[in-house]
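anyone else get weird line breaks when pasting these?? whatever heres mine. first is seq + tokens for prot A
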Amino acid sequence: MDYLRIIRPVNALMAAATVLAGFLISFQGIYFEFSGLAMLMLSALFITAYGNVINDIFDIDIDKSNRPDRPLPSGSISTKSASIFCFLLLLAGLVSARFAGVVYFKTASAIAVMLWIYSAYLKSTALWGNMLVALLSAITVVYGAHFAGDPYYAVWPALFAFLLHLAREIVKDMADVEGDQAVGCKTLPIRFGMRSSASIVIGILAMLLGILPIPWRDGLYSRTYLILIVLTVLPPVLYTVLKLLRGFENRDLKIMSGALKFAMVSGIAAVLLGKG
């Protein structure tokens, strides 16, 4: 169970689901290689799990303050065992990607390197680490769309994913200020303050709300897309914006993070069900 917890299975499954969504959004034919798509999804799942484990390895001191119940700071998994597990996940992700195709192997390798760089150097910086995580999340959509043969239809979902993940990453940093500050991290809220960070999140989400209707206006997605966006994506995003405007406590930030994650999932559903 501890090995399952350390990979953050919900996030790993979301990565695989996002690859599938990118494929379904862009697929225009009637035949595709199911085994290749399955390998691509497994690759995303394993590489995401690898990234989560390596992140916990680098963050063990921070998590002793922020998340002492996590497997590494609690001592239920040793750093050595986590490192071996991390390597096996990376190997599984790269092998799966190679079965899908050489281009996906190269892409997965590059993503794995960037995840290591993020955990080792960028996580504790202001905004750069947040932007890298958001970019990798957006790439996952394109990853699946490329396999379908036409990434054009995945451009808007990738942009939505980038903005939502960027906002959520900053909110998560705001929730972790105490632990991050104790180990000398220089995240956005530590360097520029909570209020400035909140303003940046509000600006990102306002940009997201401004562009969400564009694919419907341009005929890429149907009215179903617009209805689902209004019913399932708009409420959690507006909730986050209003809480940031009116004032918040640490427990509110964790709720906001969960709300934005829900917006990500429901946004993928809206795009899939509202495909024009």
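and prot B, same format (seq, then tokens)
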Amino acid sequence: MEKPSYFYHFLEAISKELAFVARELENSIFTSPRTMLTHARVFVENILQKVIQAEKLPDESWTNLKDRIDLLNQNGYLISEIRDALHRIRQIGNQAAHDTRMFRYSETLLCWEDVYRIVKWYVEVYQPVDFSIPDYQDPSPQMKQSYEITEIEERLKTLEKLLIASMEGSKEESEVKLETAATQEKIGAEVEPPGFTTIRTITYKDKKLEIPYFLRDAFLLPQRFPSSETFLIRLGAEQQARIMSELPNNLEGLHNHVKRYNEKHDENFFDELKIFIEEEKIRRQLTIDRPGELFYFFKADHLVVTEELSKIPLTTAEFNGIPNLLRQLNEDQMDRVAQLPKELLILAKYDKVGIGTVEKLFDQLKKKQQSY
């Protein structure tokens, strides 16, 4: 039987929103203690909101976690163990939100135990009697590539917003369901490797592009955009569109930063940006699936750089039809294949070297690789 990917997977039967927030807390225990401690407050506060709704108690939107703990305690719904666990999570969470000191793993582990006590109490008291909760387990440090802290924060904020929205009466039920389904599909099903969380959306008229976290500050190499290469070079000279984070959320009017360009150039760039993102996702997934390996990329293609390939000298004896490129590489002290850049299109920057010349080099590298 396949081991569940995270401890609180069983909560999906009650609330997928709660389960997915718990998953992100688990991911952050050893990645960022501060994040885990801060957002554990939100997690247990939403559990208390569900309890308050079940008990039909008054709950104002401005009420904070302490007020909700006191409300339930004064009405006799909390045993001392749960009340104390809630206050510990509240207090350490407040510290993590405001104190600049370093927080320890031991503090997140104690908080994780308190989270378990509260979840167990909630399930046993407010869920069907046949619903079982597993015994407590300490989390294990993740050996595989983990999410960066900023990405975890983004995922948590998205899920917490959805969790809160699903409990509010201010939204139409159908709207909540649609938003829930979309979020679960994007980050709930845990199909996204680290780096693939959507960090922003770029639009052009009625079209949209979701930008993954790992591309938030990606360099937009003009040669990667054949129809927009000169456009990007001109924009770069005006300190525009050099990296992804410089792009506006709406690309309409981007051409106004340079002379003699029009809306068609904006549209072409948007379409090529979509291709760029898809190619980069494939590259990212490749490096995740095959850690520790070196790849050279050319457009949508790639090759694995083995030790034997890396030793080949960059000479006319080994590579034919590209003497001008080889000469300039040697002048820049690139004498072996191992010294080439991962993104081979960068080589098109050299004098009188076009994409066709770089493609000749790539094709010859592939043939040499296949011959070993």
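btw re prot B: Residues 7-173 form one domain. Confidence is low (pLDDT under 50) at residues 170-185.
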